[in-house]
Design a protein that fits this description.
By secondary structure, the protein is of the alpha/beta class. It has one domain: P-loop containing nucleotide triphosphate hydrolases (Rossmann fold, 3-Layer(aba) Sandwich), CATH 3.40.50.300. Helices cover 31% and strands 28% of the residues. It has 8 helices and 10 strands. About 4% of the residues have low confidence.
Length: 244
């Protein structure tokens, strides 16, 4: 099994090529491609431009964090990636399928087939084993710690073997030690070949991903590999040697 640092990371040049080929289906290795993605909202007569033309490309098996301050557009982008909303303009390709022009019923089918959200309503022993909770399968939620409950949420998201695991603020309300444990779960899943996309506002959590996309004012402000992001953010690198 390869560690996440040994798994090939897409290059900036590769991503620029695939995001500029308007209308062309990307190769299957590209699990997520957005081209000029825009989303506007009418807030009582005032138009809010949440996304102003977002181009991103994520290869299968990449471990990517999307971060940004409040109002950056990261939640809107997460909703679009998760097929919970549709853009006003632009293209969104998921696992080789153009989903940006689908209706609600079609989106629901794609969402159920291709995306695992951290909070869903499923439960399965095999999925619990993948996050080291197989021995807790008979326990009630109130008998689990905060970290164990989060692992159950991750396991539920893995049940349908999704193309991507989409996690929104996965360490919210957890202490620092438990947050590190959850990050090591994601690291392990990435090493097993799972594509992981994590949305967070915390730089130290984003630094666990191999690549960090920073949004600001509805646009991609930067898209850097982990080491470059850590240096720019001025934070200590995460300890990736510990295992759960």
């Amino acid at each position: 099994m390869l560690t996440t640092d040994e798994i090939p990371l897409s290059t900036t040049a590769e991503r620029q090529v695939v995001t500029t080929e308007s209308g062309a289906a990307p190769e299957k290795d590209w699990v997520i491609v957005t081209r000029g993605l825009k989303r506007d909202y009418d807030m009582g007569g005032e138009i809010v431009h949440a996304l102003r033309g977002v181009d991103i490309a994520i290869r299968r098996n990449e471990y990517v964090a999307i971060m940004g301050p409040s109002g950056s557009g990261k939640s809107t982008l997460m909703n679009l990636i998760g097929c919970l909303d549709t853009p006003n303009a632009g293209e969104y390709w998921l696992a080789g399928e153009l989903v940006s022009d689908k209706d609600e019923d079609e989106l629901a089918r794609v969402r159920n087939r291709e995306i695992g959200f951290v909070f869903q309503t499923f439960k399965a022993t095999e999925a619990l084993e993948r996050v080291q909770l197989g021995d807790r399968v008979q326990h009630r939620p109130n008998e689990l710690s905060g970290g164990q409950r989060q692992r159950v949420a991750i396991a539920r998201a893995l049940v349908n073997q999704p193309a991507i695991l989409l996690a929104d603020e996965p360490t919210g309300n957890l202490d620092s030690t438990t947050s590190e444990e959850i990050m090591r779960v994601f690291e392990g899943l990435a090493e097993q070949g799972q594509t992981v996309i994590m949305v967070t506002h915390e730089a130290d959590i984003a630094a666990h991903a191999r690549r960090v996309i920073l949004l600001r004012d509805g646009l991609v402000a930067s898209d850097e590999k982990r080491s470059t992001f850590i240096k720019a953010a001025g934070i200590a690198p995460p300890d990736l040697t510990k295992k759960t």
